[in-house]
Design a protein that fits this description.
alpha/beta; three-stranded antiparallel β-sheet; 9 strands; six-stranded mixed β-sheet; 8 helices; 38% helix
């Protein structure tokens, strides 16, 4: 069984963060281990509070997993402070996991800011060059590059900037555009052309945790041995099907979760 470690924040509502990661990793058939970086109080309506954990307990969680269980891939999500970013980067350099999927969790689906500005800068400068692939949504890519994205035609400019700053590969998620067809695009230094993954947009409020779910799925498929372009195809298919399955789900009054275990049903 392939082992996937998620380093991210906890979501009390269960739709995003560590909870979504563990559900995704388990649903795809890998073994999920976790290191929690922050505890959030949130639900489908938004984030009530965020409390980062101490550097000591974050480090001990990561070392406890990697020293004993190990990891075939690591997914990194919410890192709330520059010190946490530096710690995680140092541990990635020390342990050298085969694959690192970096989801720069800066803003929640509800619009609440989860990562302070200096931490976002540290993610770009310190952690992004260590990642196998980066998975930003459009607001996150705009914040990381300073480039406004109006259409998919702007993606190449964003990739060039992120690559200049150290990114080896970027799966840019197109969910924030208003097209009826949603396009996620993979850029990589190992590919001569970008790969486009298209799906019909689903009219549903249940999109909480989609970024966490996609990045965890991508980490799983990389751990399972798929090349990056194929892993991205499988991961984008997985999140699309999870959204479809939860289209009419009624949990909470805001942005509900996707259905991670749709295949079991």
């Amino acid at each position: 069984m392939k082992r996937v470690l998620t380093i991210a924040g906890s979501d009390s509502g269960g739709g995003a963060g560590i909870q979504a990661d563990i559900k995704t990793i388990s649903a795809i058939g890998c073994y999920a281990a976790s290191a929690i970086t922050a505890v959030t109080a949130q639900n489908t309506l938004g984030v009530v509070a965020v409390e980062p954990l101490s550097l000591d307990i974050i480090e001990k969680q990561i070392r406890a997993v990697l020293d004993d269980i190990g990891a075939d891939a690591v997914k990194i999500g919410m890192l709330a402070t520059p010190d946490i970013v530096e710690l995680v980067a140092a541990l990635i350099e020390e342990y050298q996991p085969p694959f690192v999927v970096l989801d720069p969790v800066l803003v929640a689906t509800s619009g609440d800011v989860l990562t302070e500005g200096s931490a976002a800068e540290a993610i770009v400068k310190r952690l992004m060059p260590l990642a196998t692939v980066l998975t930003p949504n459009i607001p996150e890519a705009e914040r990381m590059t300073g480039i406004n994205i109006h259409t998919a035609e702007d993606y190449d400019t964003v990739w060039q900037q992120l690559h200049h700053d150290g990114a080896k590969a970027v799966l840019l998620k197109g969910g924030h555009l208003t097209d009826t067809v949603l396009t996620d695009t993979l850029f990589s230094t190992k590919e001569s052309f970008p790969h486009h993954y298209t799906h019909t947009r689903i009219d549903t409020p249940n999109t909480h945790g989609t970024g966490c779910t996609l990045s965890s799925a991508l980490a799983c498929y990389l751990a399972l041995g798929y090349p990056l372009s194929r892993a991205a195809a499988l991961a984008t298919d997985y999140i699309h099907e999870a959204i479809v399955a939860a289209r009419d789900l009624h949990l909470g009054e805001g942005h509900g979760p996707v259905d991670h275990f749709f295949r079991l049903r």
